[in-house]
């Protein structure tokens, strides 16, 4: 065993302060400091062993917390689940608000459209819109009362139930009708607008004198010569000469056409007609440039009235010849 080192004497402070032993009372014995030595080998003091002993583990907080937490029941779980569903539904409604608003708008528009169409259809087929009067417009040679009488079978019918074929069959019996249109004037009126055929003259037939239009449709036949229309001399209503005459006569204004007493054509390019009562002859030529020739003839007749003229030649409208 190793011998310990000798004990050092107490050190006096350099600044002249009294040593530690000076403060010790006289009646107490002097005890010199003795340094603590570390035991050798395996012999250890109980104090050092106690100091190196690890601290005892404190009880875990989770154990006490679990002891303090209340017991969760089935009713609490159900309430939590219901609250969660409500939150999810609220969020879903918030995110789909614009989509649901657009859907409501489209549903409203569709419902209004269906209501409008359904209501209009029901009203149209009801007696609220039944025909009670028939108005005929555009007739001159025809009598409007005759047309109304022929269409009387359509009175009392709603507008959608008007039979177009019945009206056509009734108007076909009138040769003067060239075209027609129907116009519904709610709530109870039906207007029939008629375009009459324009008579261009008459031709001699075995039945007498037949008035025809530009297409050769017979408008009327009388045993005596009709007044107010010109006599047509051509190779029949199916010839090219007759078609040329029809184009020229339809293009003439009423102020000139009513004065024509005779019209003839040896060929489609040689149309001539006579103005009464002066007997002035108009050499027209072909049916080309008809509108321009009409304007030239009107201007020439105003400058040189037919009373002092034997012939107007407008076959070449840029070089009119007056004799």
TrEMBL record:
Biased composition (Acidic residues): 58-69
Region feature (Disordered): 1-69
Pfam families: POTRA_1 (PF08478)
Entry keyword Transmembrane helix: yes
GO biological process: cell division
Keyword set, alphabetical order: Cell cycle, Cell division, Cell membrane, Membrane, Transmembrane, Transmembrane helix
Main localisation: membrane
InterPro entries in alphabetical order: FtsQ_DivIB, POTRA, POTRA_FtsQ_type
Residue ranges constituting the POTRA domain according to the UniProt record: 129-197
Subcellular location field: Membrane
Membrane-spanning residues: 105-125
Record Gene3D superfamilies: membrane protein fhac (3.10.20.310)
Name of the protein this chain belongs to: POTRA domain-containing protein
Organism of derivation: Microbacterium mangrovi
Lineage: Bacteria, Bacillati, Actinomycetota, Actinomycetes, Micrococcales
